[in-house]
Amino acid sequence: MPRTILVTGGAGFIGSHTCVALAAAGYEPLVLDNLGNSDVRVLERLARISGRAPRFVEGDVRDRALLDRLFAEQPIAGVIHFAGLKAVGDSVADPIAYYDNNVHGSFVLAAAMQAAGVRTLIFSSSATVYGEPDRSPIPEDAPRRPANPYGRSKLMVEEALGDLQRSDPTWRIALLRYFNPVGAHESGLIGEHPQGRPNNLMPFVSQVAVGLRDKLAVHGGDYPTPDGTGVRDYVHVMDLAEGHVAALRHAESQAGLATLNLGTGRGASVLEVVKAFERACGRPIAYEIGPRRAGDVPAYWGDPALAQATLGWTARRGLDQMCADSWRWQQANPNGYQG
Ligand code: NAD
Ligand code: WQD
C-alpha cells in the first residue's frame, strides 16, 4: 500500500512539483489547499504527468475540525507543510495576516497531528531566516536575524517545532530552508504563475521574454559583486521537490529534528540569470539598471553540505536548465492555468 502524505499547500508552486516527486517515489499525496494563491486546474496537469491526480481537499490549514476529520478518515503517514503566505512586502503591510496564516496555521496543524498520533512533519522554511548573513556560503548554524515579518513567521515556527520535538522525542521533523526556488517541471505542464506583477526575478524575466512586460528593472547595479547586481542561490523546483522526498525518507527512518539548507551552494547574479534566460529562449531580454530595492541583501548563497551528508541529496540542475524549464512553462502557459 502506498503511504499517504498530507501535502498542505500542495496546489501551489513548490507543493505541486513535490506531488510529482512523491508520486514518482511511490507515495500517495493528499492535497489540502484553500486555493488562496493557486488554481485547482493544476490537478489535471498533475494527472497528465503522474498518471492520476492527487486526491484534493479544498480547505484551510487553520480549520482544526477539518484536520481532525482528515486524520481520522485517511491513513496519513506524514505531512509536508507548504501552506502559507510568502510575499515579503505584503508581510510588512499586514503582519497579522502573516502571523495568523504562517504561525497560527502551523500550530493548528501540529496540534491536530499530535492528537492524531502522526509525528512526521516536513516544514517549508526559508533562507530568509538568516537575514543579512556575515558570509556565504551560509551554514545552518549561522545567526538567524530575519528582517521582515514573513521571515520572523518562519523562524517562530522553526523554534516552536524545535520545542515540540524536545517535548516529545518521537517526533520526526525536518525544517527545510529553501534558497531561491525557480524553474518548472520539464514537461512544461506545471510551473509558477504569480498573480499580478511578479515580485521575483525569474517570473518577471519570463514575462519579459514572452512579451507580457516591456523590460526588467534590475534592482541595483552598484553592489559589491562581480557585475554589480545582486547574487542569489537559485535552485530548481524539481531538485527541491526531490529534496522533500529525501527529507521524508530520512524522517521516516529516524526520530529527531533536522534543519537543512536546500540550495545549490552557488550564487548567480541578476545579469547572469538574464544571459542564461536569453540562451534558453533565443531572444534578447530588455532590461534597465535602476535603484536598489529596499531591504535587499547584496549577495548570499547556501552551504548545502549538511543536506548532502544527511539526506544524500544534491541539487543536480543548473541555471541553464532552470531557465529552459521556466521558459517552456511560460511559453506554453502565458496565462498560467487559465489556458
Ligand atoms: P505558493 O503560494 O505557490 O503555495 C502555497 C500554497 O498554500 C498555495 O497553493 C495557497 O493557496 C496555499 N495556502 C496558503 N495559505 C493556506 C491555508 N491557510 N490553508 C490552506 N492552503 C493555504 O508558494 P510556494 O512558492 O509554493 O511556497 C510554498 C512554501 O514554501 C511556503 O510556505 C513558502 O513560504 C515557502 N518558501 C517559498 C519560497 C519561494 O521563494 N517560493 C522560498 C522559501 C520558502
Ligand atoms: C532576486 C534578485 C533582486 C526582481 C525572495 C524572498 C525570500 C524567498 C525568495 C520565500 C535580487 C533582483 C528581482 C526584479 C531584480 N521567498 N530582482 N528585478 O528577494 O532573493 O528572495 O524570494 O521565502 O524570502 O525575499 O528573490 O527573486 O525577488 O530577487 O533585479 O524585478 O533579483 O534585487 O537581487 P529574493 P527575488
What is the compact description of this entry?
The protein is of the alpha/beta class and 339 residues long.
Describe this structure in words.
The protein is α/β, with parallel strands linked by helices. It is built from eleven helices and 13 strands. The protein has a seven-stranded parallel β-sheet, sandwiched between helices. The chain has a two-stranded parallel sheet with strand order 7-10. α2 links the parallel β2 (28-33) and β3. The chain binds nicotinamide-adenine-dinucleotide and UDP-4-deoxy-4-formamido-beta-L-arabinopyranose. Nicotinamide-adenine-dinucleotide (NAD) is lined by residues 8-9, 11-15, 33-38, 60-62, 82-84, 86, 101, 105, 124, 126, 178, 181. The site of UDP-4-deoxy-4-formamido-beta-L-arabinopyranose has 18 residues, from α7 and β8.
